[in-house]
Amino acid sequence: MTTQQQIIDALGIDRNFDAQREVERRIDFIIRQLKESGTRALVLGISGGVDSTTTGRLCQLAAERIREQGGDATFYAMRLPYGEQHDEDDAQAAINYIRADEQLDVNVKPSADGMLASLEQAGLAFNDEYQRDFVQGNIKARARMIAQYAVAGRHNGLVVGTDHGAEAVMGFFTKHGDGACDITPLAGLAKRQVRAMLSVLDGPEALVNKVPTADLETLSPGRTDEEALGVTYDQIDDFLEGREIDREAAERIIRTYDRTAHKRELPRAP
Ligand SMILES: Nc1ncnc2c1ncn2[C@@H]1O[C@H](COP(=O)(O)OP(=O)(O)OC[C@H]2O[C@@H]([n+]3cccc(C(=O)O)c3)[C@H](O)[C@@H]2O)[C@@H](O)[C@H]1O
Ligand SMILES: Nc1ncnc2c1ncn2[C@@H]1O[C@H](COP(=O)(O)OP(=O)(O)OP(=O)(O)O)[C@@H](O)[C@H]1O
Ligand SMILES: [Mg+2]
């Protein structure tokens, strides 16, 4: 078996993708997880990007269906900006589209800045402002994780993640930040498959086609994922769908997959 095929299998990429069927299958998955765990709430940060818009709508539909069956479930959508978000319009478009049962707006800037200030006070120094900004980016992602787990803890809920095949293969998430969650409804999907699902769900056109950004670095707001990754999502998606891609791009994907293996595993133990 080729390395490409091994990765496709390890990430659970489905060759026979059908957007409508996957929407239904993944709503059922969320409903089953709530029932089996005995929890009554779903918690998810809504950024204005395509992943959280899609996942948010799946969560809302799952909560509504449970209530229609006489059960108890509430979806808590969280806005978690770091100060003012440059694409706040998109975040609001996502919120208006998802129509979550409940919404909480929490600015993560005071806690993220507070943590960095305390670390620097304790003597942590950085090589330059870019390294400092990168480390601070991961602190922002983890501050969002803390906020979501606080709400889940209060409401007996599950924290929902947005990781999918195209991010997982590149390890492109903050370990124990946005990578920390209880369920990942988008697991095993290529990025274009996530877009296709949002389209089937009648999501706003602008969000279906939105350029992906982690938006973690203050010194380069809205920096595109593709710029950071060094490959395009089309290349990643083609790779995951078993197509032949540019050799250099394939090598980069495989190298990155190997380097980030630890992010897809449980902590090592003796
Ligand atoms: N071999 C190994 N075995 C076990 N653990 C290992 C390890 N190497 C590093 N580690 C641990 O992992 C840490 C590094 O991982 P991590 O803290 O995640 O940091 P890192 O992977 O360096 O940075 C996160 C990356 O994900 C991107 N990101 C984050 C959040 C969201 C999105 C998005 O798409 O929206 C993207 C972000 O832009 C950045 O490029 C190390 O500090 C160390 O603690
Ligand atoms: N400003 C934010 N407010 C609320 N949640 C956020 C914010 N930034 C990131 N998140 C959470 O972290 C997750 C990971 O971010 P990521 O950028 O991968 O997803 P996205 O923004 O939904 O889609 P895309 O990858 O296309 O930008 C988001 O799906 C969301 O749940
Ligand atoms: Mg984003």
From TrEMBL:
Listed EC numbers: 6.3.1.5
Entry's family note: Belongs to the NAD synthetase family.
Taxonomic source organism: Kushneria avicenniae
A cellular-component GO term for this protein: cytoplasm
Keywords, comma-separated and alphabetical: ATP-binding, Ligase, Magnesium, Metal-binding, NAD, Nucleotide-binding
SUPFAM superfamilies (alphabetical): Adenine nucleotide alpha hydrolases-like
Binding residues for ATP: G45, I46, S47, G48, G49, V50, D51, S52, T162, K191, T213
Gene name of this polypeptide: nadE
Superkingdom of origin: Bacteria
Protein name from the UniProt record: NH(3)-dependent NAD(+) synthetase
Sections of the chain in a coiled coil: none
GO BP: any one term: NAD+ biosynthetic process
Pathway linked to the protein: Cofactor biosynthesis; NAD(+) biosynthesis; NAD(+) from deamido-NAD(+) (ammonia route): step 1/1
Domain NAD/GMP synthase: 23-267
InterPro entries to which the protein is assigned, alphabetical: NAD/GMP_synthase, NAD_synthase, NH(3)-dep_NAD(+)_synth, Rossmann-like_a/b/a_fold
Complex formation: Homodimer.
Reaction catalysis annotation: deamido-NAD(+) + NH4(+) + ATP = AMP + diphosphate + NAD(+) + H(+)
